[in-house]
Write a structure and sequence with these properties.
Elements lengths: L2 E3 L6 E3 L2 E4 L6 H7 L8 H11 L5 E4 L12 H15 L4 E5 L16 E3 L4 E3 L2 E3 L8 H4 L3 E4 L4 E6 L5 E11 L13 E4 L10 E2 L23 E4 L4 E4 H4 L13
Parallel strand pairs: 3-4, 4-5, 5-6, 8-9, 9-12, 10-13
Antiparallel strand pairs: 1-2, 2-3, 7-8, 10-11, 11-12, 11-14, 14-15
Helix pairs in contact: 2-3
Amino acid sequence: MDIQPIYSVPALRVDDSLVIADLHIGIESHLMKKGFHVVSRTKDMLDCIIESGRDCNRLIVLGDVKDSVPGSSKQEYREIPDFFESLLERFDIIDIVRGNHDTNIEEFLPSRVKIRPASGMVLDGVGYIHGHTWPSEIVMGSKMLVMAHNHPSVMFKDGIGKQMTEPCWVKGDFIPNNGKFDPCPKSFIIMPAFNRILGGSPVNVFDEKFLGPMMNSGTLDLPNSCIYLLDGVNLGKRSDLMIKGKRYREEKRP
């Protein structure tokens, strides 16, 4: 099994499949309602997927194709169908593992796109889930579990307290004989969000919480997991990178 991140792109190559997650097509519409005028990046994401998967014949999307939940925006109705029609010109097979934002996703997709349940799918010994629900027993019997949903990033803080974050990969092992799952995968990978507008949730900050039941089950050896930047730099073990974050709160005025 050949599993490799694509250099400088939040995408994973697993044999002849390209794996991505968290597209959140339509997020620009929601940002505009808050006063931010952002040009749609859907075409940029399409071009990046096609370029990254030029040697792949299958595309696997780990959930959150759309951004609106509940409901759908005009941007989603306008962009998602053409987006996947274009991808079908490049990939023979497209699988979408349903995410928590993918309500009524069937309305947007060509019939050739396969929608997998939120409990996940298995392909050649690798399990795939979005991460907002428990995996199925079949998925838990895979050798490796690939998940999304958390939009992982790593936080850096300089000497004067200025903070910045970068998207990252998290790779680690399940705790052997954890007593909760039998069988369970040997290892896991948490994917960064493909849509760069989303930012990320720092995985190396003490007061930040993970999302999803699997991430909070105590079965993942998160302290000894390794953090990788998109350019492949291994930052080391998560436990060695932990810092105190700064939460901003509006001060009450007299």
